[in-house]
Protein: Cro/Cl family transcriptional regulator
Organism: Enterococcus termitis
Amino acid sequence: MRIKGDIIRSVRKQKKLSQVTLAAGICTQGTISNIEKKNVCDSLEILDAICKRLNLSLESVLDDNDEKKVTNLLNTVEDLCNTFKHKEAYTLLKELTVDVADFQNKELEIRWLYYMGITNLLGYNNTTDSLFYFYRADELGDANSIYAILSVNSLGIVYEMADELDKANVYYEKSIELLKKMTVDMPIKATKIYFNTAKFYSLIKDYDTAFELATKGMELNKRYQSLYMLDLLAYETAFNDFMRSADQKIPDYSSAKAFAAFNDNQSLLSVIANDEEKLAR
């Protein structure tokens, strides 16, 4: 993708960072050099991580109006999906007139494919189309493509919804293994992978694994000083810790309640209240 490398170079120098320091944990020094001298970057995830380190918005360095348009649209779609408005998100995606397959930026196409898949699946229960989008995203993605890994994880959701738990397990496990192989800093969106997979392992009564995965999601939030899905992760952590422990009389939902109240997650608060009522009998 075409980017404004002069902005990145200028801000890097203002912050007195060398190219090696800026690249540390994200990419190679050569990638930074290509960004600044040739105004190109092949990975949206790498560019996003660089921008965050420099305290720049991603949109401020993109040099392609169509890419900016799609990026802004996908940011809105992501916000809608995070509040379970998948049908509304799908409507926005269908209004897009730009062909993302024409972009040099493959990560943007993979992100679009993931959201087409998840909105079809959770908005309309359209497993046929969602499978196509998720498989295509997995095919295009590389080791550091979080949206490709999210697509693999979502294949687990598809098969879980179809009650094909053995197949679901394959894709949930694969997504966790792919996270481990990332060579850039793990993005906060990996939280969703930890949560989905923890929930699945809880379903199949592997409470130890579910607890471990939910805990990893909470640790990722701590690293980013974030509240991303923290209410749901706190619930999974407390529930699975209770189910795997012989000495707990009731789950410790105190953190889950606090985060759910903060996020105004009435659905989760109802689930917790129902759990506590059953356990009190």
Summary: The CA atoms of residues 8 and 94 lie 33 Å apart. The two ends are 60 Å apart (CA to CA). The longest helix spans residues 106-124. Residues 125-279 form a domain with the Serine Threonine Protein Phosphatase 5, Tetratricopeptide repeat fold (CATH 1.25.40.10).
